[in-house]
Give the backbone structure.
Amino acid sequence: MKIRFVTLFVMLLLSACATGAQTPSAPPAPRHNLMPVPASVRFNEGRMAVTKNFTVATRGFVDERLRSYINRVARRLERRTVMEFPRNPATDASTASLVVACQAAGKTVPALDEDEAYTLEVSERQAVLSARTVVGAMRGLETFLQLVDSDREGYFIPAVSIEDKPRFPWRGLLIDVGRHFHPVEVIKRNLDAMASVKLNVLHWHLTEDQGFRIESKKFPKLHGMGSDGDYYTQNQIREIVLYAQERGIRVVPEFDMPGHATSWLVGYPELGSAPGPYLIERQAGIFNPSLDPTREQVYKFLDTFLGEMAKLFPDAYMHIGGDENTGRQWRLNPTIQAFMQKKGIKDKHALQTYFNQRLLKILKKHGKTMMGWDEILQPDLPKDIVIQSWRGNKALTEAARQGYNGILSNGYYIDLAQSASMHYLVDPLPADTTLTATEAAHILGGEATMWSEWVTPETIDSRIWSRTAAIAERFWSPRTVRDVEDMYRRLAVVDVQLEELGLTHRKNQEMMLRRLAQGANVAALQTLISIVEPVEEYKRFKYHTQHTMLNPLTGLADAARPDSFAAGDFARLVDTLLADAPRFDANAYRIQNTLTLWRDSAIELQPMMDSIPGLHEARPLAKDLSEMATVGLEALSYLSKNIAPAPEWRAAKLAMLEETAKPKAALEFPVILNVRQLVVAACEAPRLKTMTQSAWREHVKQLATPPVPPTVK
Ligand code: ACM
């Protein structure tokens, strides 16, 4: 019976070829694992072997920054290839494996207009990396590392000509250390990861309702009373800024005001718009405490404080937040209301603009350019400020039209646990933009935002990486680089490479499961966790209603990673089964193995879930896992035997899958869609007689996508 199913597919394939359905196409470009994809890549014949005699020489300009970077890259290459390279600093450029030819230092303090371009020519004899600046050379060195490949003959770099430069000059990652504090080592390893995918701005969100995370020597009660002792000393700040600088990364600090300011007021309630007292906020959300914009004392304080901060951060920009000010404290304060009346300030927005105008003068005095969230965009602000749009591309476009520089963060909220593909396809400057070229030049780039309501130092890497590498590609690579499938293929490689930098996005999952399992074998738990994803957007608040910032975040939803690779693998397996009839047996076999593992894992989980309270929440998930796997195996069996199941079977199974599709413990199974596809495929197999293979596959996928059309039996 199985033979019949396969034969049918083959016949359809042959007939498709005969009728010319298959169009001739250019030979496929050699696949590479570069992320971000360079502006121009041309592979040539041949390869350069990477052996234990690998050496690097420099030509032209070299400084300590470049020397250290080269050294780190060489050590990473050694670790990856399990080889020990000669350490001869005076390597002759004519015989070196890699020549780094840099023309000049570039900016010592990384700046927005830094030249990051480079070229990389790899021939059989040598690789030559050329750049005008040290930062350009750094970017090229990361590309060089990503080119390393291997086969039975050894490690090698393919012969290639690369010319590369970024599409946008501002390519950032925001790390919120306010809601949860993230110590120095977390920031450092993330800076390494950022450099590896050519991101160049760390936006450091240092103050929040839930924590004031930077030492102020002028106002020690800020960090002293506003941080639970979790803050960076000024020496640590300098250390991080230097660390970033050595990787060509700017550090833009954010001091969020006038709202999001509870932690300032714990030690200095006199700055607030209500008398207080104030306590560090423990909940997540939008809160009322706000600086009082009507008091001169507040500006005097900010002048001294921001002056102190300006000396710590060499970057030209300082971010003053400005988002989500509720205005409630202002409304309820008669003195503030009287002030507004006297000055003819009509509402809270106008009062915030007044505040921003005052802030602007202070920032200017300390040599900084203002940056803020899109709420700050009000008339009369100077054109050199930068608007960061979190509310939408529309706000960004509007700002650009008015002549303001802007960056996009809407669409790059990585705290929302959405897919890499979703973020990847968001473009700060989409092809259909209505901006003129001059206006479009105001779009400087974008930033991924790691808001930290739900992350601890243990889990933050897993929320940032590797999805942020896809966003980094959006900011660096040409707009036309948009192949989602190829992005995921490369992302899987990058995901592993990121570990060599000390990132914990993969390894902490296993540690967390071991801790939950208290020494029991975690194999079954790993199987379960590998195919679930935390619920997206802000839905987690629905499942964990008692959430505070003091929650340890060590449960299953914390161990799971967004956009599961294993789920993606299963989706591809099922898709291939539907598309590739000649290999039906092989594909079905792999799916069967996977489903069997799922079903058996659910059984293995039973004793663990019963005896360990921390795993009780896995019970409904294990039940779903078992049911889903069983349904999938049944469908596969029908398909293999080419027996059409009864209509009641289809209805019953789809109804059951609808139940399993409901999130439990703030987790969901994306693979349910693919199990639905198997169910529908089993029922729709007879239709293959009347449809082409690809039409049938689309037909199945469409029917399997809920809600199932009522006409389908
Ligand atoms: C923001 O998400 N409130 C910037």
The mean pLDDT is 94. The two ends are 23 Å apart (CA to CA).
